[in-house]
Write a structure and sequence with these properties.
By secondary structure, this protein is an alpha+beta fold. The chain has a single domain, classed as ADP-ribosylation fold (Alpha-Beta Barrel). 30% of the residues lie in helices and 32% in strands. The chain is globular, with a radius of gyration of 14 Å. The mean pLDDT is 95. It comes from Streptomyces cyaneochromogenes.
Length: 117
């Protein structure tokens, strides 16, 4: 019998440039952070991701996308949930230097679930 790890669903609002980089990585990883981006922050709530993609990414990038992906739940325990505002504004803060290890724990592929222009 194969033991499949339990996963947690995460969402990430993103603009077109980051999405192009995810596509180049075959939808299996997030690209390295830029020097001015010390934290990678996936979110725990689809509605929160929609608000960022629709209200922020469209305004600044011309388009916004919400992605959904699964990560090994046991691995995610190392990252405390951060409340970035209201009760449903929840994020994980992954230090940029840990992103390769985080990517190694993505189960399946990253998929686009919403698009805004």
């Amino acid at each position: 019998m194969i033991n499949t790890p339990s996963t947690t669903t995460l969402w990430r609002p993103t603009g077109p440039k980051e999405l192009d980089l995810v596509r180049e990585l075959d939808w299996r990883a997030w690209p390295p952070r830029l020097p001015e981006q010390p934290i990678f922050y996936p979110v725990l709530n689809e509605d929160y991701a929609v608000r960022i993609a629709r209200d922020w990414n469209v305004k600044y990038d011309g388009a916004g996308f919400v992605t959904r992906f699964e990560v090994d739940s046991e691995f995610l325990r190392r990252y405390p949930v951060r409340q970035a505002g209201g009760a449903t504004i929840l994020e994980l803060w992954v230090p940029a230097e840990e992103l390769d290890e985080f990517n190694a724990h993505i189960v399946g592929t990253i998929e686009v679930v919403h698009e805004f222009r």
